[in-house]
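Standup notes
- HV: blocked on the assembly model, inputs below
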Amino acid sequence: MKELISKLKNNIDLSPEAEEYLHSISSNREVSKGEVLIREGQTVRYTYFVTDGCLRSFCIDKNGRQHTLQFAIKEWWISDFIAIYNNELATLTVESITDSKVIEFKAMDLANIFTKYSEFEAFQRGNLERHVVSLQKRILNQLQLTAAERYDLFLQQYPDIESYTPNYHIASYLGITQQSLSRIRKEKANA
Amino acid sequence: MKELISKLKNNIDLSPEAEEYLHSISSNREVSKGEVLIREGQTVRYTYFVTDGCLRSFCIDKNGRQHTLQFAIKEWWISDFIAIYNNELATLTVESITDSKVIEFKAMDLANIFTKYSEFEAFQRGNLERHVVSLQKRILNQLQLTAAERYDLFLQQYPDIESYTPNYHIASYLGITQQSLSRIRKEKANA
């Protein structure tokens, strides 16, 4: 929690009351590899800030195939924001793909922070704007880049992810088959 | 502008000063079919609120192919938000695909509204949250749905767009070739 508080203090004028509030709505949690924190169809009660390890959010299509929306490494937030922002049940599943450490925030209390402590508004606006940019870029990349180019960008964003993530997670993020991913890797190795 | 002001008043407690500010940073503009409002490589000075017609934003890849990020119909906003939020030159082009009417806002002055009139913060947070949701859903749909399923969803979102948009715009939004789009349409017509 210390790291998150000091990160916040770099960006906003955090009052002692707001800091106390953050402590009151959160708890440190260790999660094991494979543990599911949010399950499709359930109410989303928590938002997670990753302090160690890696989590992933994904949906499962009607044929049982998984499609990865996000990987969250150290200092990233993860939850089912579609469910939280739309006030719906989860359509995503969030699981830990390594042994991880997270700060677990009550999602509803976190949403109330903006009315309680308005200093968070401008900060959150910046966060959401950056999120919009990264999602728009991902859509444009999906439209215009080859699978091999998207794989290169992915490795730039998550440099050592291949050491702890199975191939099918990465393929399911890039929107390609595991066979295509293997072929791309072979071509890179031989290039 | 009246429509936009009344829409805002449904959502926020708009002070006369804030309303006056909105008028001072905007102007009504009629744009012709094919007119380019933002061009890749240039500084993005304006954000547009569509009051009639349809605009589109797209990027151009290294082979000269266009890829459509967004169509904006009545009551939608459009600009190059990647450029605005990252303070970069435009990577997108915004053009009007019909004769249209827009309200043109100075982008920098619009960004300053949140510090001048804090009542816009919570409203904008809601807008950005909904934008994140729609972009995440588009990514998930791109990963998990067939092209025909994505085309059906597209027509639900933009019911009469086919009457004024060339096929290659729609294909370039769905990430498919024009030939695939023609095939999907034929199969729907024969179904």
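- HV (later): unblocked. The CA atoms of residues 78 and 159 of chain A lie 19 Å apart. The interface with chain B takes residues 59, 61, 65, 67-69, 81-82, 85-86, 114-115, 118, 121-122, 124-125, 128-133, 135-140, 142-144, 172, 175 of chain A (CB under 8 Å).
- Next: hand off to the docking folks.
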